[in-house]
Design a protein that fits this description.
Helices cover 31% and strands 28% of the residues. With 243 residues, it is α/β, with parallel strands linked by helices. It has 2 domains: 3-69, Hypothetical PUA domain-like, domain 1 (Ribosomal Protein L25, Chain P, Beta Barrel); 77-239, SPOUT methyltransferase, trefoil knot domain (Alpha/beta knot, 3-Layer(aba) Sandwich). Helix 2 runs parallel beside helix 3 and helix 2 runs parallel beside helix 7 (225-239). The longest helix is centred in the middle third of the chain and has 20 residues, at 119-138. The radius of gyration is 20 Å and the shape is elongated.
């Protein structure tokens, strides 16, 4: 069944309103009619089964038939701090991580990032967020994972202190395995910091020497930056019983 996201402010009593692009999609692309049923999510992990009652140019009004907590959201929240790769790679990373259950993604500039910071990059966040929304609809997520404004690795320390565990996959780490770390105790809030093309510099690894950071090995093979986050997210979801 077709799925849409709305802000919770558009839910009033036993009805809700879908606006703008999604309303146009319902009217002109899907060509849905009055009395057709759709699924609408409030971006807060609640799904609503709805019946369309009115269709206009910019709005679709629905009556709520029933509501249920989304069953697609994992119990563990994972944030990916992705070393800024080339733009097309980041779009792929966003799409696949959303499908796998990521909570949010923070593009992060590092010394070996191919793309350098500029004011124009902030405009890319709108496109990245749209990719996240499309992937969330396709994978029946209960939220749209947020793609946050890009940051510099030098500004990351205060941010990552809020996580129970911060994982840094590092090719020179050979003993500390991801599986062992995940089984050592319970975590509810995990961050992954992935280097860009070329990996971390030695100075960056030294900078990331904090109490809640675990440098881990992903095995004997060197993975591309667009593969690392997906692999780690899959392993985390499996180990925590979410797959």
């Amino acid at each position: 069944m077709t799925r849409f996201f709305i802000d919770s402010s558009n839910i009033v009593n036993n009805s809700l309103i879908i606006k703008n692009d999604d309303a146009n999609h319902i009217r002109n692309v899907l060509r849905l009619k009055i009395d057709d049923e759709i699924i609408v999510c409030d971006c807060k992990e609640t799904d609503y089964l709805c019946k369309i009652t009115n269709i206009s140019k910019n709005e679709v009004v629905c009556d709520i038939i029933s509501s249920n907590k989304s069953i697609s959201e994992p119990n563990i929240k994972v944030t990916l701090f992705q070393g800024m790769p080339k733009y097309d790679k980041l779009e792929y990373i966003i799409q696949k991580c959303v499908e796998l259950g990521i909570n949010d993604i923070v593009p992060t500039f590092m010394e070996r990032s191919v793309v350098k910071y500029s004011d124009k990059i902030n405009n890319k966040v709108i496109r990245w967020q749209k990719i996240s929304e499309t992937a969330a609809k396709q994978s029946r997520r209960g939220i749209i994972p947020e793609i946050k404004q890009p940051i510099n690795l030098k500004n990351i320390k205060n941010i990552i202190r809020e996580y129970d565990l911060v994982l840094v996959p590092y090719e020179l780490e050979t003993e500390n395995k991801l599986q062992k770390v995940l089984k050592s105790r319970t975590y509810k809030n995990i961050a992954i910091i992935v280097g860009p093309e070329g990996g971390f510099t030695e100075e960056e690894i030294a900078f990331l020497d904090l109490d809640n950071i675990e440098k881990v090995t992903l095995g004997k093979r060197i993975l591309r930056t667009e593969t690392v986050g997906l692999s780690m997210l899959s392993i985390i979801m499996y180990e925590k019983g979410e797959i």
